[in-house]
Amino acid sequence: xxxxxxxxxxxxxxxxxxxxxxxxxxxxxxxxxxxxxxxxxxxxxxxxxxxxxxxxxxxxxxxxxxxxxxxxxxxxxxxxxxxxxxxxxxxxxxxxxxxxxxxxxxxxxxxxxxxxxxxxxxxxxxxxxxxxxxxxxxxxxxxxxxxxxxxxxxxxxxxxxxxxxxxxxxxxxxxxxxxxxxxxxxxxxxxxxxxxxxxxxxxxxxxxxxxxxxxxxxxxxxxxxxxxxxxxxxxxxxxxxxxxxxxxxxxxxxxxxxxxxxxxxxxxxxxxxxxxxxxxxxxxxxxxxxxxxxxxxxxxxxxxxxxxxxxxxxxxx
Length: 317
Ligand SMILES: NCc1[nH]cc(CCC(=O)O)c1CC(=O)O
What we know:
The protein is α/β, with parallel strands linked by helices.
């Protein structure tokens, strides 16, 4: 194929989830471009080094704007040419990128829900008063406060297997929240629930309750993999475009545009998800006021993801 190269270097973080996502990316590329050699470069990010403090504090301490903690070093590697394509969890990518880089493609999305992992069955409603819930996400914390104001929130850091072990092996938490996508990709849960009282693979004492997105709103881009390249790198753009998943791209374009409109430099906790039926996109969001209090919930529909995002943004302002 014209414009392709002999070797492409894929950059990824070293967490188990990141490596699975890199393997998925390499598999799709290898099928489409059997002549090209895909090499992998593992890069440690600030978010991986600083597991001692909360994510918000990592960002502050390191002078990195918000979500940059998992992508900064990958972007540096893109910039100096030591990698060509950076593989990210899309929800870890800022909605506005440094102009040297572009989001070139998104891969088919995994399940988008958040999951409550708990030591007793029955999900969120069955947690006793005051139960301790671990999460490092402000979005998840605010939703828990809204749905169950009596619960106690505790910070929880570490990659997915570490967080599961912290719940399973200690008495520090009664429950934790994780993304369904990470649990499915790492084999902790099947793609679809097998039965009513699900447990985590390898941890028969840990129950998993998939929280419906209309009640517990996921992060923009949750479950999707984003491929970032240098702006102007036409060869890498050809590779990325060849494995882009169109439906996912349309949905995450709407979700990320909504987040971008809302952000404007602040850090409003927001959950958002979308559905695509034919060419019509439906976008649903729940926005928590920064100063606390009751969230606003809204929806918008239409054929154009950017217009739908703008309409929803204006209706919730
Ligand atoms: N910020 C960490 C992170 N980034 C992406 C995922 C899971 C995969 C995804 O949502 O795409 C996770 C872990 C989690 O939220 O449980």
